[in-house]
Amino acid sequence: MSLLGLDVGTTGCKAGVFSLDGACLAQAYREYDMLHPQPGWSELDSADVWRKTKAVLAEVAARAKGDPVTALSISAFGEAFVPVTQGRELLDASILCLDDRGREHAERLCADFSPEAFYALNPNLPGPQFTLPKLLWLREHRPAVFDRADYFLLWSDCLAYLLGGEPVTNNSHANRTLLFDLGRNDWSEPLLAWSGLPRAKLGRVVPGGARIGTVADALASELGLPRGVQLIAGGHDQCCNALGCGAVAAGQAVYGMGSFDCITPVFGPPAEPQLMRKAGLNIEHHVVPGLFVAFLFNQSGLLVKWFRDTFAADTPTPPGADIYTLLERELPAAPTRLLVLPHFTPPLFPRHLPDTSGVIAGLKSDTRRGEILKAIRECTALYFVDSLAGLQSAGIALTGFIASGGGARSEAGLQIRADVFGLPVVRPRITEAGVLGAAMLAGLGTGQLGSPAEAAAVFVRHERVFEPDAARHAAYRAKHALYQQLYPALQSILHSL
User: Fold this and answer.
1) 102 contacts 133 by C-beta, under 8 angstroms
2) Cα separation of 183 and 295, whole Å?
3) Prediction pTM value
4) Is the N or the C terminus of the chain less surrounded, counting Cβ atoms within 10 Å?
5) What is the CATH number of the domain that holds 193?
6) What would the pLDDT profile of 309-363 be if each residue is shown by its tens digit?
7) Residue 87 belongs to domain spanning
8) Do 452 and 235 form a contact (C-beta atoms < 8 A)?
9) How many angstroms separate the CA atoms of 453 and 469, rounded?
10) How many domains does the chain have?
């Protein structure tokens, strides 16, 4: 018997099959493109994501036939929703959090609720990146799609529904909608009333790990899965990352490195939630019962992908080689002389800044592309320094990070982060922790695995610790002082651009 985990990201989807002793039996990946049909718009072709999802599921199912899959669960990025019918028909593209649509509704929400009152219901700092403003935009601008949709489901729950499950929303994802009451662990009646959105279109709220059906027989045959594979409610990708990294107790933290870099501290119920708000931090259910997480994030991975496509599109890559590994050979050993303002897409945390853009400062005629790539990695880490200080002021101190995601394969990238933060970074044996965490959640939901701590003891192994270098950390502290000045000095110019 084996467990299948699926992790759906902003730029690609991954699947993995794991035996009950923690061995990885098969993995597969497919990439898809972010679409920009108009300036300021960012979306995914929902049908294309579904096709690529089925492709990775079929690939791993075929490679794991000797140890048949018994259950699967899904990890996915947050906020973006999919309009779908009771007949499981996809109706439209999926609007991403990077998309600027719905800003006017976010502003209206902020005008109608004080920050304290809103945070007491839904502990987020409202902005257009969340689901609610996008739903209101859809209702206003595409009423035929809105009216025809029976459900608006976030990606982890939508894919489970397409596979044959119930139309539900897991509670770690529900908080990303701005329509969820964290204290009641259910949809918020005041926020539903304010929005005019019908509860029935959002699905029943369930915890991650709940049983929500089985894979439909026809799809099981199409994908090469056994009949009767249990579908287990999944979760927000960073929460599944945390489970897959073994962050199942308060005080641990994960550094997720995918399309987004996301720091995920794990903690118990906060004694004073409003301190978290003042520090610009959210609170969300973990997929581990009784625990909560917050997110510090930026679009680091998307920026590195932009660098690859812009500076290395024509770089010859031998068969079997990885372009990022080749580029890392060009990185200088010392901290760079460049400053990068990583606003190539509008920042969403700790503040949404729509009227800005990216900057690379300090270029000279002898600057090489390796220095630019390293500066991007340095400054996307420096971006978090002030927020980590805010986290500590709210009573959550970190002693280090467990790395996850595709970016965790980069030894240079992990060392840069250890040097910037002055804290150790641990790389686990399996870095695709979203896939692993989803598989672990499938096992926990079916009772094939014991407690989260017991599951982590079996599935999670640490491979290497990257310790900070004191001299480089001192250099990055000085560089952070310059980084703090960059946006304030250029804000009016960037706004005009």
Assistant:
1) yes
2) 18
3) 0.84
4) C
5) 3.30.420.40
6) 999 998 988 888 889 999 999 999 999 999 999 999 888 778 778 889 999 999 9
7) 2-245
8) no
9) 32
10) 1
